[in-house]
Amino acid sequence: MLARANGLAHARLGIAAPKRQLKRAVDRNRIKRIIRESFRRRQAQLRGLDVVVLVRHGVLALDNAALFRRLDKLWNSLSKKCEKQFFS
Hints:
Ribosomal Protein S5, domain 2; three-stranded mixed beta sheet; 17% strand; alpha+beta
């Protein structure tokens, strides 16, 4: 994940899920759908940030529940790190 302050009252999301990493469209769509839903649940916590999620190889080995858990950990660490860095 990459993040930067955006100066707005809400968070925005970008997803980079390249065809090179996820060959099938159904796989890309599943991963992007899960990322968007996870972001929607945490959007208020990430206020004022632009976030780009970079999809890496190995993500297809995770089922939906494991992917949600991994994203939750990433959102938590990102919000803590950015709270200190951008909004102190």
